[in-house]
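A favour, since you know our C-alpha coordinates better than I do. What I am after is a single protein written out in full by you. Could you add the entry underneath, on a fresh line?


***
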Amino acid sequence: MRTRSYFLVNAIIRDSLTFAIDPKLLDGGEAPERKMKGGEEGEGEGEEVEEEHDRPKPDDDPASGTLLPRDPDGRDNDRDQAEADEQTSLLPESIVRGRLAAERFGYDQGQNQWQKFPRWAQSFLSFSYAFLHAPLVGAVTGVVIGLAPPLHKTFFGAPDNRGIFTAWLTDSIKQIGELFAALQVVVVGVKLSSSMRKMKRGEDSGTLPWAPMIFVSIIRFVIWPAISISLIFLLASRTNLLDNDPILWFAVMLMPTGPPAMKLTALADVAGSNESEKMSIAKFLSIMYAISPLICFTVVGALKASKAAMGNA
Protein backbone atom coordinates (compact mmCIF):
# COMPACT_ATOMS: atom_id res chain seq x y z
CA MET A 1 0.00 0.00 0.00
CA ARG A 2 2.88 2.38 0.77
CA THR A 3 4.40 1.73 -2.65
CA ARG A 4 1.10 2.51 -4.29
CA SER A 5 0.82 5.75 -2.33
CA TYR A 6 4.31 6.84 -3.39
CA PHE A 7 3.55 6.19 -7.05
CA LEU A 8 0.21 8.00 -6.78
CA VAL A 9 1.92 11.12 -5.38
CA ASN A 10 4.44 10.94 -8.20
CA ALA A 11 1.63 10.54 -10.76
CA ILE A 12 -0.19 13.60 -9.41
CA ILE A 13 2.87 15.83 -9.66
CA ARG A 14 3.90 14.40 -13.04
CA ASP A 15 0.45 14.71 -14.61
CA SER A 16 -0.01 18.24 -13.29
CA LEU A 17 3.18 19.36 -15.00
CA THR A 18 2.57 17.22 -18.09
CA PHE A 19 -0.86 18.60 -18.98
CA ALA A 20 0.23 22.15 -18.18
CA ILE A 21 3.48 22.26 -20.17
CA ASP A 22 3.60 19.43 -22.70
CA PRO A 23 0.67 20.54 -24.94
CA LYS A 24 2.56 23.76 -25.71
CA LEU A 25 5.73 21.78 -26.44
CA LEU A 26 3.88 19.41 -28.78
CA ASP A 27 2.29 22.36 -30.57
CA GLY A 28 5.52 24.31 -30.95
CA GLY A 29 4.65 26.83 -28.24
CA GLU A 30 1.43 27.98 -29.90
CA ALA A 31 -2.11 27.65 -28.64
CA PRO A 32 -3.77 24.39 -29.71
CA GLU A 33 -6.70 26.28 -31.20
CA ARG A 34 -4.61 27.81 -33.97
CA LYS A 35 -5.66 26.73 -37.42
CA MET A 36 -4.14 26.97 -40.85
CA LYS A 37 -5.82 29.42 -43.16
CA GLY A 38 -7.23 27.88 -46.31
CA GLY A 39 -7.11 24.18 -45.38
CA GLU A 40 -6.00 21.57 -42.94
CA GLU A 41 -3.09 22.29 -40.63
CA GLY A 42 0.21 21.59 -42.27
CA GLU A 43 -1.10 21.71 -45.85
CA GLY A 44 0.16 24.41 -48.17
CA GLU A 45 1.75 27.56 -46.90
CA GLY A 46 -1.30 29.12 -45.32
CA GLU A 47 -0.90 31.71 -42.66
CA GLU A 48 -1.92 30.77 -39.11
CA VAL A 49 -4.82 32.66 -37.66
CA GLU A 50 -6.29 32.76 -34.21
CA GLU A 51 -9.41 30.76 -33.49
CA GLU A 52 -11.18 33.98 -32.60
CA HIS A 53 -11.06 34.93 -36.28
CA ASP A 54 -13.19 31.85 -36.96
CA ARG A 55 -15.65 32.78 -34.26
CA PRO A 56 -19.03 34.18 -35.28
CA LYS A 57 -19.26 37.89 -35.78
CA PRO A 58 -21.77 39.54 -33.48
CA ASP A 59 -24.76 41.42 -34.83
CA ASP A 60 -25.92 44.67 -33.28
CA ASP A 61 -27.39 42.70 -30.39
CA PRO A 62 -24.97 39.85 -29.59
CA ALA A 63 -27.39 38.31 -27.10
CA SER A 64 -30.35 38.24 -29.46
CA GLY A 65 -29.92 34.55 -30.25
CA THR A 66 -29.61 35.05 -34.02
CA LEU A 67 -25.92 34.34 -34.19
CA LEU A 68 -24.52 31.61 -36.44
CA PRO A 69 -20.89 30.76 -37.30
CA ARG A 70 -19.77 32.56 -40.41
CA ASP A 71 -17.24 31.87 -43.09
CA PRO A 72 -14.23 34.22 -43.30
CA ASP A 73 -16.09 36.12 -46.07
CA GLY A 74 -19.01 36.80 -43.73
CA ARG A 75 -21.54 34.28 -45.04
CA ASP A 76 -23.36 31.93 -42.70
CA ASN A 77 -22.26 28.31 -42.73
CA ASP A 78 -24.77 25.70 -43.84
CA ARG A 79 -24.94 23.37 -40.86
CA ASP A 80 -26.97 20.82 -42.76
CA GLN A 81 -24.09 20.34 -45.19
CA ALA A 82 -21.36 20.31 -42.54
CA GLU A 83 -19.85 16.96 -41.67
CA ALA A 84 -21.05 15.80 -38.25
CA ASP A 85 -18.53 14.73 -35.64
CA GLU A 86 -18.44 14.00 -31.91
CA GLN A 87 -18.76 17.73 -31.14
CA THR A 88 -21.84 18.33 -33.28
CA SER A 89 -24.69 19.58 -31.12
CA LEU A 90 -27.87 17.51 -30.92
CA LEU A 91 -29.89 20.43 -29.60
CA PRO A 92 -32.38 22.40 -31.73
CA GLU A 93 -30.93 25.11 -33.94
CA SER A 94 -32.53 27.90 -31.91
CA ILE A 95 -30.81 26.73 -28.74
CA VAL A 96 -27.48 26.42 -30.55
CA ARG A 97 -27.83 29.98 -31.84
CA GLY A 98 -28.57 31.29 -28.39
CA ARG A 99 -25.59 29.47 -26.92
CA LEU A 100 -23.26 30.84 -29.59
CA ALA A 101 -24.58 34.37 -29.04
CA ALA A 102 -24.10 34.11 -25.28
CA GLU A 103 -20.63 32.63 -25.75
CA ARG A 104 -19.54 35.42 -28.07
CA PHE A 105 -21.03 38.12 -25.86
CA GLY A 106 -19.26 36.72 -22.78
CA TYR A 107 -16.01 36.32 -24.70
CA ASP A 108 -16.06 39.93 -25.90
CA GLN A 109 -16.83 41.25 -22.43
CA GLY A 110 -14.06 39.15 -20.93
CA GLN A 111 -11.59 40.33 -23.55
CA ASN A 112 -12.42 43.94 -22.77
CA GLN A 113 -11.72 43.38 -19.08
CA TRP A 114 -8.61 41.31 -19.82
CA GLN A 115 -7.01 44.13 -21.81
CA LYS A 116 -7.23 46.38 -18.74
CA PHE A 117 -4.75 44.19 -16.81
CA PRO A 118 -1.04 45.09 -17.01
CA ARG A 119 1.17 42.88 -19.16
CA TRP A 120 2.88 41.18 -16.20
CA ALA A 121 -0.50 40.29 -14.68
CA GLN A 122 -1.69 38.81 -17.98
CA SER A 123 1.47 36.68 -18.22
CA PHE A 124 1.15 35.48 -14.64
CA LEU A 125 -2.54 34.64 -14.99
CA SER A 126 -1.98 32.85 -18.30
CA PHE A 127 0.79 30.75 -16.76
CA SER A 128 -1.32 29.95 -13.70
CA TYR A 129 -4.36 29.08 -15.80
CA ALA A 130 -2.34 26.39 -17.60
CA PHE A 131 -2.29 24.39 -14.36
CA LEU A 132 -6.08 24.50 -13.92
CA HIS A 133 -6.66 21.23 -15.76
CA ALA A 134 -8.57 18.08 -14.94
CA PRO A 135 -5.73 16.04 -13.31
CA LEU A 136 -4.81 18.81 -10.87
CA VAL A 137 -8.44 19.66 -10.04
CA GLY A 138 -9.15 15.97 -9.45
CA ALA A 139 -6.07 15.59 -7.26
CA VAL A 140 -6.94 18.62 -5.12
CA THR A 141 -10.53 17.40 -4.79
CA GLY A 142 -9.30 13.96 -3.73
CA VAL A 143 -6.93 15.44 -1.14
CA VAL A 144 -9.71 17.57 0.36
CA ILE A 145 -12.09 14.62 0.53
CA GLY A 146 -9.42 12.30 1.91
CA LEU A 147 -8.19 14.66 4.66
CA ALA A 148 -11.65 15.74 5.87
CA PRO A 149 -12.99 12.88 8.05
CA PRO A 150 -16.70 13.63 7.43
CA LEU A 151 -16.19 13.78 3.67
CA HIS A 152 -13.95 10.70 3.73
CA LYS A 153 -16.61 8.69 5.50
CA THR A 154 -19.32 9.97 3.16
CA PHE A 155 -17.44 9.08 -0.03
CA PHE A 156 -15.45 6.02 1.06
CA GLY A 157 -17.24 4.60 4.10
CA ALA A 158 -19.37 1.49 4.04
CA PRO A 159 -22.92 2.06 2.72
CA ASP A 160 -24.35 1.06 6.11
CA ASN A 161 -22.02 3.48 7.90
CA ARG A 162 -22.89 6.88 6.38
CA GLY A 163 -21.12 6.07 3.10
CA ILE A 164 -23.98 7.46 1.06
CA PHE A 165 -21.82 8.10 -2.06
CA THR A 166 -19.72 4.93 -2.00
CA ALA A 167 -21.88 2.47 -3.91
CA TRP A 168 -23.27 4.68 -6.69
CA LEU A 169 -20.72 7.50 -7.11
CA THR A 170 -17.30 6.60 -5.74
CA ASP A 171 -17.20 3.10 -7.21
CA SER A 172 -18.48 4.37 -10.56
CA ILE A 173 -15.79 7.06 -10.78
CA LYS A 174 -13.15 4.53 -9.73
CA GLN A 175 -14.17 2.14 -12.51
CA ILE A 176 -14.16 4.94 -15.09
CA GLY A 177 -10.67 5.95 -13.96
CA GLU A 178 -9.40 2.38 -14.24
CA LEU A 179 -10.59 2.35 -17.86
CA PHE A 180 -8.32 5.24 -18.85
CA ALA A 181 -5.18 3.17 -19.47
CA ALA A 182 -7.11 0.48 -21.35
CA LEU A 183 -8.85 3.05 -23.55
CA GLN A 184 -5.53 4.70 -24.38
CA VAL A 185 -4.19 1.31 -25.51
CA VAL A 186 -7.26 0.93 -27.74
CA VAL A 187 -6.68 4.40 -29.22
CA VAL A 188 -3.03 3.59 -29.92
CA GLY A 189 -4.06 0.31 -31.57
CA VAL A 190 -6.61 2.08 -33.79
CA LYS A 191 -4.10 4.73 -34.86
CA LEU A 192 -1.47 2.06 -35.53
CA SER A 193 -3.90 0.01 -37.64
CA SER A 194 -4.91 3.10 -39.63
CA SER A 195 -1.24 3.94 -40.14
CA MET A 196 -0.49 0.45 -41.46
CA ARG A 197 -3.39 0.58 -43.90
CA LYS A 198 -2.28 3.97 -45.23
CA MET A 199 1.28 2.72 -45.53
CA LYS A 200 0.12 -0.19 -47.72
CA ARG A 201 -1.79 2.24 -49.94
CA GLY A 202 1.27 4.46 -50.26
CA GLU A 203 -0.29 7.35 -48.33
CA ASP A 204 1.21 9.48 -45.58
CA SER A 205 1.15 7.37 -42.43
CA GLY A 206 3.37 9.45 -40.16
CA THR A 207 7.14 9.38 -39.97
CA LEU A 208 9.15 7.76 -37.19
CA PRO A 209 12.75 9.04 -37.09
CA TRP A 210 14.98 6.34 -35.65
CA ALA A 211 17.56 8.66 -34.10
CA PRO A 212 15.13 10.34 -31.62
CA MET A 213 13.57 6.97 -30.77
CA ILE A 214 16.94 5.42 -29.97
CA PHE A 215 17.88 8.50 -27.96
CA VAL A 216 14.66 8.32 -25.91
CA SER A 217 15.13 4.57 -25.38
CA ILE A 218 18.65 5.04 -24.04
CA ILE A 219 17.52 7.87 -21.77
CA ARG A 220 14.49 5.96 -20.37
CA PHE A 221 16.04 2.50 -20.01
CA VAL A 222 19.74 3.19 -19.37
CA ILE A 223 20.69 6.71 -18.31
CA TRP A 224 17.76 7.58 -16.03
CA PRO A 225 17.88 4.20 -14.19
CA ALA A 226 21.63 4.59 -13.65
CA ILE A 227 21.20 8.15 -12.32
CA SER A 228 18.20 7.39 -10.10
CA ILE A 229 19.63 4.21 -8.58
CA SER A 230 23.03 5.79 -7.89
CA LEU A 231 21.60 9.02 -6.50
CA ILE A 232 19.02 7.38 -4.22
CA PHE A 233 21.60 4.85 -3.00
CA LEU A 234 23.99 7.66 -2.01
CA LEU A 235 21.25 9.70 -0.34
CA ALA A 236 19.91 6.68 1.57
CA SER A 237 23.28 5.32 2.70
CA ARG A 238 25.32 8.49 3.27
CA THR A 239 22.79 11.13 4.35
CA ASN A 240 19.62 11.53 6.39
CA LEU A 241 17.63 13.35 3.70
CA LEU A 242 15.41 10.30 3.08
CA ASP A 243 13.41 8.41 5.67
CA ASN A 244 14.66 4.97 6.67
CA ASP A 245 12.13 3.31 4.40
CA PRO A 246 13.47 0.82 1.81
CA ILE A 247 10.09 0.79 0.05
CA LEU A 248 10.44 4.53 -0.53
CA TRP A 249 13.96 4.09 -1.89
CA PHE A 250 12.86 1.35 -4.25
CA ALA A 251 9.85 3.32 -5.52
CA VAL A 252 11.84 6.50 -6.15
CA MET A 253 14.49 4.53 -8.05
CA LEU A 254 11.84 3.21 -10.44
CA MET A 255 9.85 6.41 -10.96
CA PRO A 256 11.89 7.97 -13.82
CA THR A 257 12.31 4.71 -15.75
CA GLY A 258 10.23 2.75 -18.23
CA PRO A 259 8.52 3.60 -21.53
CA PRO A 260 6.71 6.93 -22.08
CA ALA A 261 3.18 7.04 -20.73
CA MET A 262 0.18 6.26 -22.89
CA LYS A 263 -1.11 9.72 -22.05
CA LEU A 264 0.93 10.97 -24.99
CA THR A 265 -2.09 10.17 -27.13
CA ALA A 266 -4.28 12.34 -24.89
CA LEU A 267 -1.68 15.12 -25.05
CA ALA A 268 -1.73 14.95 -28.83
CA ASP A 269 -5.48 15.54 -28.76
CA VAL A 270 -5.10 18.40 -26.28
CA ALA A 271 -2.41 20.01 -28.44
CA GLY A 272 -4.53 19.69 -31.59
CA SER A 273 -2.02 17.50 -33.45
CA ASN A 274 -2.97 16.32 -36.91
CA GLU A 275 -3.59 12.68 -37.84
CA SER A 276 -0.08 12.18 -39.19
CA GLU A 277 1.47 13.19 -35.88
CA LYS A 278 -0.93 10.96 -33.95
CA MET A 279 0.04 8.01 -36.14
CA SER A 280 3.72 8.74 -35.51
CA ILE A 281 3.05 8.78 -31.77
CA ALA A 282 1.20 5.46 -32.03
CA LYS A 283 4.17 3.87 -33.82
CA PHE A 284 6.57 5.30 -31.26
CA LEU A 285 4.56 4.02 -28.28
CA SER A 286 4.16 0.58 -29.85
CA ILE A 287 7.90 0.16 -30.27
CA MET A 288 8.67 1.55 -26.81
CA TYR A 289 6.24 -0.81 -25.11
CA ALA A 290 7.59 -3.72 -27.17
CA ILE A 291 11.02 -3.18 -25.59
CA SER A 292 9.60 -2.37 -22.12
CA PRO A 293 10.74 -5.76 -20.66
CA LEU A 294 14.17 -4.11 -20.47
CA ILE A 295 12.91 -2.49 -17.29
CA CYS A 296 13.58 -5.81 -15.52
CA PHE A 297 17.25 -4.83 -15.23
CA THR A 298 16.22 -1.60 -13.50
CA VAL A 299 13.97 -3.49 -11.07
CA VAL A 300 16.74 -5.91 -10.15
CA GLY A 301 19.25 -3.08 -9.79
CA ALA A 302 16.86 -1.09 -7.57
CA LEU A 303 16.28 -4.13 -5.33
CA LYS A 304 20.02 -4.76 -4.99
CA ALA A 305 20.74 -1.09 -4.30
CA SER A 306 17.96 -0.85 -1.69
CA LYS A 307 19.28 -3.96 0.05
CA ALA A 308 22.81 -2.57 0.06
CA ALA A 309 21.60 0.79 1.36
CA MET A 310 19.85 -0.98 4.25
CA GLY A 311 23.17 -2.53 5.26
CA ASN A 312 24.99 0.81 5.13
CA ALA A 313 22.24 2.91 6.77
Remarks:
- DSSP finds twelve helices and two strands in the chain.
- Residues 3 and 247 are 6 Å apart (CA to CA).
- The radius of gyration is 25 Å.
